[in-house]
Amino acid sequence: MLSKRLLEISKLIDSNKVVYDVGSDHALLPCFLVKNNICPKVYASDNKIGPYNRAIENIKKYQLEGKVIPVLAEGIEDIRDDVDIITICGMGFYTIEHILEGKNLTKYDKIIVQINKDNELLRDFINKHKYYIIDEEVIFDGFYYELVVFSAKEEREYSPLEIKYGPILLKKKSEMFIKYLNYRKDKLEEIYLRSKNEKILKEIKEIDSILLD
Ligand SMILES: C[S@@+](CC[C@H](N)C(=O)[O-])C[C@H]1O[C@@H](n2cnc3c(N)ncnc32)[C@H](O)[C@@H]1O
Is 13 in the pocket of ligand 1 (CB under 6 A)? Predict the structure, then answer.
């Protein structure tokens, strides 16, 4: 029922919390969370009628009416008062920036974001707002994905290296993160062979120093 990517995201959600899934499309993550008794209630929100209708179909299919609540709304404009955790997955950074910019996020326990690329821009956005990164994971589901969990309840500042690679990822140095760094390094080496660009070489050396640390 759930892709490996969404399954890994579900593991970051604490039990008994109310979740608001932005850009839910098919509502598969909300349905999984409720069906598996992780959450008592999840909002499946989307700003387009097609995905909203797909969510309603799945809610009916899994008989989760009243527990998975479909919402047709832009971003978090219509977010409900009982929400503890926001998930925003499978969208581009600029859409997510548009959804979160100027919003008061201090009441939420966690905001879980999964974008397909531009995680450095995401962490730069987090840093600019002095938000606090609670957790990070790298997963592989056909592609490498970074999952970033942050909160606006505490203030933090991050170094350029942490913004680029992830403060928690650098600290945890999981096996998957090492694989991901080697993958990034291989790609950069291919580019360097063609371009002999000094900036690329600097980045390769930067990754080497993280791997050797
Ligand atoms: C690629 S799907 C991702 C579905 C699911 N979250 C996942 O990760 O598999 C992106 C969904 O986000 C919705 N979306 C895009 N921009 C949005 C916005 N500003 N507010 C709410 N939903 C949005 C789209 O309509 C689409 O259904």
Answer: no
